[in-house]
């Protein structure tokens, strides 16, 4: 079985689970958890990529998809997740949506 390249994977919002996710093999998912604050901002709280997918670019693809989805929604992001903070530090092109 050939695994799809990280950039081919689709990031989907799963509001029932309060997370953005990428479906992986089987039931595995990479996920970025969030809550919506009183101002309507998307507060990114935690990111998880299963260990066996480490080093494949899944986390970066997830972060890019999350930031793109937040931008498309017209909302702002608040970064409480250290992974998202590091991704943003390398991708300042998202400064228009980061609000804390």
Task: Give a description of the structure.
The chain has about 100 residues and is an alpha+beta fold. The protein has one domain: 3-Layer(aba) Sandwich (Aminopeptidase), CATH 3.40.630.30. Helix content is about 25%, strand content about 25%. It has helices spanning about 60-75, 80-90, and strands at about 10-15, 20-25, 30-35, 40-50, 75-80. It has a 5-stranded mixed β-sheet with strand order 1-2-3-4-5. Strand 1 (about 10-15) and strand 2 form a beta hairpin. About 30% of the residues are buried.
Helices and strands, with pairings:
Blueprint: E1 12-14, E2 19-23, E3 29-36, E4 42-48, H1 58-73, E5 77-79, H2 82-90
InterPro entries: Acyl_CoA_acyltransferase, Gcn5-rel_NAT, GNAT_YJDJ
Pfam family, one: Acetyltransf_CG
Protein name: Acetyltransferase-like protein
Helix content: 25-40%
How is the main sheet built?
Answer: 5 strands, mixed
Uncertain segments of ≥5 residues (pLDDT<50)?
A: none
CATH superfamily: Gcn5-related N-acetyltransferase (GNAT)
Beta content comes to 25-35%
Radius of gyration computed on alpha carbons:
13 Å
Helix/strand class = alpha+beta
Residue-averaged pLDDT? 93
What string, H for helix and E for strand, traces the elements in order?
Answer: EEEEHEH
CATH architecture: 3-Layer(aba) Sandwich
> Which fold does the CATH topology refer to?
Aminopeptidase
Adjacency order of strands in the biggest sheet: 1-2-3-4-5
Number of helices: 2
What characteristic shape results from the CA principal axes? globular
**How far apart are the termini?**
42 Å
**How many β-strand runs?**
5
What is the count of distinct domains? 1
CATH class category name = Alpha Beta
InterPro entries: Acyl_CoA_acyltransferase, Gcn5-rel_NAT, GNAT_YJDJ
Domain N-acetyltransferase: 12-99
Protein name: Acetyltransferase-like protein
Organism: Rhizorhabdus wittichii (strain DSM 6014 / CCUG 31198 / JCM 15750 / NBRC 105917 / EY 4224 / RW1)
């Amino acid at each position: 079985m050939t695994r799809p390249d990280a950039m081919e994977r689709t990031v989907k919002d799963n509001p029932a689970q309060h997370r953005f996710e990428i479906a992986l093999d089987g039931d595995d998912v990479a996920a970025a958890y969030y809550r919506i604050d009183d101002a309507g901002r998307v507060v990114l709280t935690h990111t998880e990529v299963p260990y066996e997918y480490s080093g494949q670019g899944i986390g970066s693809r997830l972060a890019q998809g999350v930031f793109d989805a937040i931008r498309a929604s017209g909302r702002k992001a608040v970064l409480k997740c250290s992974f998202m903070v590091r991704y943003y530090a390398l991708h300042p092109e998202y400064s228009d949506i980061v609000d804390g």
